[in-house]
Amino acid sequence: MRSIRKVVILGANGAMGSGSGAVFAAAGIPTVFLARTLEKAEAGRTRAEQLTKGKANGISCGTYSSDLGHALADADLIFEAVSEDPATKREVLALIDRLRTAHSIVATVSSGLSIGGLCAERSEDMRRNFLGIHFFNPPTIIVGCELIAHAGTDPGVVAIVRDFLTTIVGRQVVETRDTPAFAGNRLGFKVLNEIAQLAEEHGVAFMDQLVGPHTGRALPPLATIDLVGWDVHKAIVDNLHARTHDVAHDHFVLPAYMQRMIDQGYLGRKAKGGFFKREGKGADAQHFVLDPASGDYRPVAEITPAPPAFADKMKAAIKGGRHAGAMEVLCTAEGREAELLRRVLLGYISYGLGLVGEVVERPRDIDRIMGFGFNWAPPSVLVDAIGPGRTIVMLERAQLPVPHAILDAATHQRPLFNEPAVDSGKFFVAA
User: Fold this and answer.
1) 184-202 and 336-354 are packed helices; what angle lies between their axes, rounded to 10 degrees?
2) Is the pLDDT of residue 1 over 70?
3) Residue 38 burial (CB < 10 Å; 0-12/13-18/19+)?
4) Which domains does the chain have, with CATH numbers?
5) Whole-angstrom Cα distance, residue 105 to residue 107?
6) What pTM value is reported for the model?
C-alpha cells in the first residue's frame, strides 16, 4: 500500500489550511505551506506553530508562482484548502492537475460542496485519486473528520487516506457519501437554523437557555452560530435548502432577520456582533442580545428570562451524573417550554438517524461525527437515555419519521449507542 510521507497545502494562510497543516506537521509529516505570497504562507506557518504550541515542526513555505511545480513533484497528498467557493477551487484544482505527478492523491477540504462536481473536468488519473476531507474547526482540537469519496474515487485511495488520518494523524474518521453538506453539517445546521428560526418568535436568550449544554451540546446553538460566523452559516444552509428536498427542507431557510443583519455587516463574533455582542473588555465589558424583530441590541440582563423549572431539574440530574435522569425529567415535564425542547431534540434524533442509508452506512457513523465533530450528544445517546420504545411513541406523537435503527433497537431490546470507550455522560453539562 502506498504511504503518505509528504503533504503540500494550498491555501495554507487560511484558518483551515493552517489548522490542517498544523495537524499534519505535528504528526511528524513533512509539510509544505503554499500561498499567493511568501508572507501569507509564513503567516500560516506561524499560526500552525501557535496552534500546536511549537509542535508543528518541519513546515516549509513557498508561493504558487515560484514553488508549486517543485513542491508537487514528490507530494504524496496535495491538500487544497482555498476558500469555499466552487469557481476558486476548480481553478486551483486545474492548476494542480497540470503539475501533479501520476498517482499523487488530491484532497479538497470542504464543508459541503460536491466532491464529484469539483473534479468533473479533471484528468482521469486525478479523478481516481481525488476525494474530500472535512476537518472541523479548529482541527487541532476537534478530532472528528469526514472522508468523502465521489463515484470515481479509487477504493484503494480511500483506504490509504483513511489509514493515514486514523493511525498517523489521530482523527476519528467517518466516511460519508458525496451528498450536500455530508453528514455532520447537514444534521448540525438543520438544528442550528431551526433554533435561529424559533428565536424570531421566542427570543434569542430564551432559545439558547432552553437548548443549552444540559441538552447535550458543548455550546448553546445561537452562540455556536456566532462562533462559526453568520456568513458561513448562510452559505451552508442556503446550499442545503437548494440541494435537498426532504423532511428538513423548511428548516434550511435562512431567517429573513439574519439576512438583513448580514447585509449590514453583522457576522457574529468576527464582525460587529450576531445574536450576542460584547462592548468593552474585561470586567467593564457589557453584554447585549439581539432582538430579531427590531434588529436592535438590549442588555442581556434585561432580556434573559428565568430558566424553566424542568431545566433546573435536568441540570440537577446531570450534576448527579445521571444524564438519563435528565431525559426522564424532559419526557415527563409539562408546559410550552418542555414541548418546544422535546420537538427540537426529537427532530434531531429523527433526522440524524434517518440519514443512515442515504448519507452514511451505519447509525454509528452519525453518532461519531456528532460526538467527535460537533461535541454534541449523539442521537443514539439520547435514544438510549429516553428508551427506544418510548422514543418511538414520542416520535409518532410528534408526527416525525421513525428511523429503522430505533425500531431495530426496540425490537432486540439493546442499546443503540455502541462506543464502549466513550462515556456518554461527557456530552451533558449542567451549566
Assistant:
1) 160
2) no
3) middle
4) 7-176 (3.40.50.720), 184-265+306-427 (1.10.1040.50)
5) 7
6) 0.92
